[in-house]
Design brief:
Layout lengths: L9 H14 L4 E10 L2 E12 L2 E14 L2 E9 L2
Antiparallel strand pairs: 1-2, 2-3, 3-4
Length: 80
């Protein structure tokens, strides 16, 4: 999907990540860099897992918006 998929509401987000981590039990996300400016946060990350029996990784960036101390929006971009 060129513009990604939109999830709205805590229940939808929690359900997505529960299913995703159940399907990817060895997945690890590591923050490589975090930049905070006002109500925005940018996190450069690396995602690691085993694929076809071999170590594999993917890099990406999340752009987060925080309101009243809670995550209000998250845009995720991957390299490649």
């Amino acid at each position: 999907v060129p513009d990604g998929r939109r999830l709205e509401g805590k229940a939808a987000v929690v359900a997505f990540w529960e299913q995703w981590f159940a399907a990817n039990p060895d997945a690890r996300f590591e923050a490589e860099d975090v930049i905070v400016a006002g109500d925005r946060c940018t996190v450069r990350w690396i995602y690691r897992k085993t694929r076809d029996g071999q170590p594999w990784h993917l890099r990406g960036v999340d752009v987060l918006t925080v309101r009243d101390g809670k995550l209000a929006a998250k845009l995720a971009y991957v390299k490649g």
